[in-house]
Specification:
The longest helix has 21 residues. The chain has three domains: 80 residues, Alpha-Beta Plaits (2-Layer Sandwich); 232 residues, FAD/NAD(P)-binding domain (3-Layer(bba) Sandwich), CATH 3.50.50.60; 193 residues, no CATH class. Helix 5 crosses helix 12. Strand 9 and strand 10 form a beta hairpin. Helices cover 28% and strands 23% of the residues. It is globular. The two termini are 40 Å apart. 47% of the residues are buried. With 535 residues, the chain is of the alpha+beta class. The chain contains twelve helices and 23 strands.
Length: 535
Amino acid sequence: MIRINEVKLPLDHSEVALHDFVINKLSINKDQLVDIHVFKRGYDARKKNDIYLIYTLDITLKDVDEEQLLTTFADDHQVKKSPDTSYKYVAQAPENLTERPIVIGMGPCGLFTGLILAQMGFKPIILERGKSVHERAKDTFRFWRTRELNTESNVQFGEGGAGTFSDGKLYSQVKDPRFLGLKVKQEFVAAGAPAEIIYVSKPHIGTYKLVTMVEKMRRKIIELGGEIRFETRVEEINIDDNQVTGVTLSTGEVIPSKHVALAIGHSARDTFKMLHDKGVHLAAQSFSVGFRIEHKQEMIDTVRFGKNAGHPLLGAADYKLVHHCKNGRSVYSFCMCPGGVVVAATSELESVVTNGMSQYSRSERNANSAIVVGISPEDFANDPMQGIALQRQLERNAYILGGSSYDAPAQCVGDFLAGKTVSQMGDVEPSYKPNVKLTDLSTSLPAYAIEAIREALPAFNKKIKGFSNADSMLTGVETRTSSPVQIKRGKDFQSINTKGLYPGGEGAGYAGGILSAGIDGIKVAEAIALDMLNA
């Protein structure tokens, strides 16, 4: 096939425009054009009233010498040979398999580690401390309604991981020369995701669709011989002479294995402590803290898309912002959720943590995003456990500021910027459940973070007019942007000082979001499979 990159067409182009472009570009006749496959579709909205769609197309031809065609277009960066994007399994389990690999955690990384191992015939045992995604959803929505927190079944813990209660974004900036991200998205489509996630530039799924998809992927793993245990917490990873020998569960049961994938997510703080106590090499890692900011989605749509606001191919508008502050800190938007809500995302008692969530429709009245400040290891003495302690301190402080009832502390942007005592709610109604308490947010984060955010918000207003309007709403605190811990691993994906332990995903410090965690899960599965075959 032939690939044509950077095909630029008007937002409302005709159905035949792609065919006409290809025929004219390649100087072929219409009978030679068999098929046009859209590999990617994005948009250029730099001129909001003159928006263009940008395509990458894979072209199937007949009666055409493709090698000669490529020679003709050798100096044209638009026309290239289509790469092979198919996924190829690196191994196949032997029939006399005597050992089963263990996967700890069933977020995106653990899910794909387990799925790929199962597809290669290695019959993994997946251990998830939380509940199945359906039961977990009940516990999570109950907490939002009643403030009754289940510390083992919530936004952070349970089948599907933290990404289940998010916008379900499926894009990443990680380098992906093997197109593993495409494999992730193809498995999601097979489980019921909209087919468009394969080719749109900023695909998303939404919470409700993710729930049903995860259930289907679980059934697929089981059909392939995998075993999944919910409400099963790993109490200890057993290590003998720097070699993993298995795991001990909270029930006391021991499961032997010399190949353990660790896909625990960024909130398994008790597991981090256990690993630290056992001497597994952990390093401090940068993370960020801040607030969720809410605006009316209609305003964001108008500023970003102008007269094209509401166009079905554009959907609800998003944004990405960054500002480098005078005090040396950087402030940036994170996990922007168009047409979504701010959710209670704590996993610990007497703590408040915020996150953002959208459904596939992105039809809620508000847009929300984290506005966060970078925290470096030097801020917590280069000690990974102190990074966790800092997160915990901020979350418990937010709990107190919110009235010690799991309500979140909140403040209008105008009052926050002016350093005024709280006045009243503005036009932007906060979406956080259970509820918010208007208060002074200046004591909710370190002084340098407050200073940086106060500088950044007016700067963001220059890029998105209305961003720092007085009525915009801040809700605190956002602390779980990424793991403060990295579990160091080598090129073989094993811990650098514990053979047989394969740290992966966001909690281990190797991913940031659903897609990159899924990609890392595939790589971990491949490393385990190859090592098991060579053992």
